[in-house]
Amino acid sequence: MRTDPPVPLPAPRLDVPAELVSFIEGLPEPHILFDRQYRIVAANAAYRSAFAPRGTVIGRTCYEVSHHFSVPCDQAGESCPLALSRRSGQRERVLHLHHTPQGEAYVNIELVPLRDAQGEQAFFIEKMEALPLARAQPARQGLIGSAPAFRDMLGLVARVAPSEASVLLLGESGTGKELVARAVHEASARANKPWVVVDCASLPESLFESELFGHEKGAFTGAHMAHVGLVEAASGGTLFLDEVGDIPLPMQVKLLRLLESGTYRRVGSTELRHADVRLVSATHRDLAAMVAQGRFREDLYYRLSTFPIALPPLRERLGDLSLLAHALLERLTPGRPLSLDAGAVQQLARHPFPGNVRELRNVLERAVLLTDGDHITAETVDRALSVGLLRRPSPLAGAATAAAEAPSPAPTGASLRQTEAQALRAALQAHHGSREALAAALGISVRTLYRKLRALDENGEGGPTPG
């Protein structure tokens, strides 16, 4: 079979100022220089070492080298800093997933346009900075993922981490808020200073102030010696308030004073102390609703949420499920080589995971204990899911109970069927997962669910059918 030879790329421009090439060569971070056709015309030693140790990149396009794309990034579903810069006329920053000799890695990109004598964008300098806080391949620690929702979240983390802004992490339980908070700390200038976690949900109101701000000897019964609070312990570093929605209202005023003035007092002391801490907080609660209900101070809410970041639930990043599962399996069994069959991954993908990544870890840990060989099968995953299934009240049972307890006369057989059909239709409309998950939520077997769905269809009462 005859194939045409590849069309060579045009030669790089020869009028690149030598001073410009010399300038980027002396920079310690990886830098490349490319023209308006995306062709790399210069790359410094730091770039060559990190991204192209075994070949040249001169004359190749930046999107082919970095992503193995055949078209520019913005035509392949990625954010393209050059396209953004052409529209804005200024420097642009994006987070990209780059191919490197060690595999895919997250890289912060900063692009600066260079203009010619006519004021037109002639060249572009691109600075690349590795972002080690997350990976797109299985790893023993850190954040893992490459789904669009995960990457959007990671881009916000990369932007805010180097600043001193207060960060509020919002998300369902089990989405990894403490991991993200730790990533904010490790990507900041305070990375080598203390990292202190305050579990607000576990501290009783009577001890909250003492634990947070400390107390003096004799401040209260049982205070036999002075106690250093968590704010003082975090001096110079990051203070992470986990489940900040559980902070008692009286303490919210004192926390607000700390945020606004940077000062606090130990319990039993009049001495004003100064705190140098960066605050990161997290909650699974709807703080805005709590403010409306008078359960959370509005002024504190705005102080905490200088830079809010929403963490995506697992159902919004199903493309990461296989990656997460294999990474968690490595962490759970460091000395035992275990793999997941394709059917096992598919079985996991059919589960809604209301407990998110924490629930996924628990399911995999049960599957490991239920496996004697080297492979975790779909049947084992099904058993692990069934063992840990949280049984919720069945909408069908609830409707039947409500009908039985109603003050009206006892319903006939027809009205009972109608009540059950109505409850089943409501459950179908609210459910977006698999038939197995719906049956589990209703507290019935899959076979019973199929029989009831078939009865709905035969009676002309059918609704949306779960996939």
TrEMBL record:
Record's keyword terms, sorted: ATP-binding, DNA-binding, Nucleotide-binding, Transcription, Transcription regulation
Molecular function terms from GO: ATP binding; sequence-specific DNA binding
PROSITE patterns the UniProt entry points to: SIGMA54_INTERACT_1, SIGMA54_INTERACT_2, SIGMA54_INTERACT_3, SIGMA54_INTERACT_4
Boundaries of every Sigma-54 factor interaction domain copy: 143-369
Entry's Gene Ontology BP terms: regulation of DNA-templated transcription
Gene3D superfamilies: 1.10.8.60, Homeodomain-like, P-loop containing nucleotide triphosphate hydrolases, PAS domain
Taxonomic superkingdom: Bacteria
InterPro entries: AAA+_ATPase (IPR003593), AAA_lid_NorR (IPR058031), Homeodomain-like_sf (IPR009057), HTH_Fis (IPR002197), P-loop_NTPase (IPR027417), PAS-like_dom_sf (IPR035965), PAS_4 (IPR013656), Sigma_54_int (IPR002078)
The keyword Hydrolase appears for this protein: no
Transmembrane segments: none
Alphabetized PANTHER family for the sequence: TRANSCRIPTIONAL REGULATORY PROTEIN
Protein name per its UniProtKB record: PAS domain-containing protein
Organism: Ideonella dechloratans
